[in-house]
Amino acid sequence: MAGEPGPGQSDDIRLADSLRAGDVIALTEVYDTYAPFLYDYCHGLLRDRVEAAGALRNVVIAAREHVDRLTEPARLRGWLYAIARKECMRRRDSPNRHTGQEAPEADDELTSEQLARREERRLLAHSALAALNGRQREAIDLSVRHELDEVDLAGIFGMPLEETLALVEKAREDLAAALHASLIAQNHWKDCPSVAALTESWPLDPQTSAALVRHVENCPVCGARETPALPPDRLLSVLPIAAIPADLRLDVLTAATAEDRAGNRRAIAAWTEPFDEYGWPLPYQQTAPRRSDRAPRRRGPLLAAVAVGVGVLVLFAGAMTWLGGGDDGTNAAATGPAVPGGSGSPGDSGTPEPAPTDPSPTVTSPSPTESKSPSESPSPSKSPSETPSTKSPVPPTTTRAPQPPSPGRLSVSGCNMGRSDSCTVTIRAVGGPVDWQVTGTSGPVRAGGSGHLGAGQSSGVRVSRASGFCLGQQTGSVSVSPGGSASVSYIC
Asked: Does residue 148 belong to any structural domain of this protein?
């Protein structure tokens, strides 16, 4: 935080080297040095103390598992923030994330008068920051309160350095303009009716703050008003800092070092992958939409296209027979399977969609330049004595769209974590294909996911224990649609 600088680059190098050597004491030092700042950052992104604690634990575990990848040990601190951001983005994408329990604020032991002044400045800071977009606010927070430079920010956001420099510069300019407007609204609102109408309540919301900035830029009265300069570090120093739980240290260090949790650590470390050539984690990519979220197939037009294609083929074959064409199959139109992702709408992300499992019929009609018009008549016979072809016409064929397979049912098997942090519930499709989805959990466990299984196929759902204090045997359950439930247990 501003006013509480972290260790210098020489300490980063020493800690990184010690972590690479497997020094457990170094892991403890890393936690004691960086954990309070990383926890506050995670809490700012997740707005929940349980999720922030789980994110911090995974950051420490991933850092120990992947420290060999970091090519610049002097950037250890920024690298930890990059891991933290990716973990938080992953958690924000989870449908089963914990919400609604924000962490208490760190105690500053201020007097009542100091608290009142701080609250007034907080309203001002919140109103000014509201005019910035989310990426700008995060860049300002990381560069000012967490004292990270633009090189670290480039690695955290996964952006080129030039774009990061432009982002930080624009964020500071917009913050200065928003702070100027907020100071006018706070101290001189009586001088302009428009400002008074915009600022009836504090702090300002994003829409009002942006409107206030635009007004000040175009109002001759407000535009001529001067306000005192307030550096960003002083402005943001009054913002609340999430207090890291005192009992989290033992939980994190145990999870990162216990021998019986090695498998769980490898699974957690895998979430941080992939990395770039410098050993920094690439930004989190949102998972593809579930099958149930995709637009339904329009089978009506597809069947109509099949009918048209079959009709063209029949007419084409009949015309060739009437003209005495061969029946060896050389004139048949070629057909083949459709290529998944071969065409897409303008808004497609570019990721090819998996091949559908239901056998929708696909017919490739002949090119217009290759097919003859049905209205064409054969040329008249040159000799009346010429014998017409005796070949019988090809009987019309009918093509019936194959029926999709009958849906199956879901078989679900529970699991026991023992003293580990997670286990895998096994799901299997019986009697046909199944579209499955985790619909909820009960008890101190968390799980999520969805997918499609062909008949006889199986998959796994990772279930983890909920964060927090527990004692003895704990049990819970995971509900999976359609009609499945699995029991899960672990020992604290």
From this structure: yes
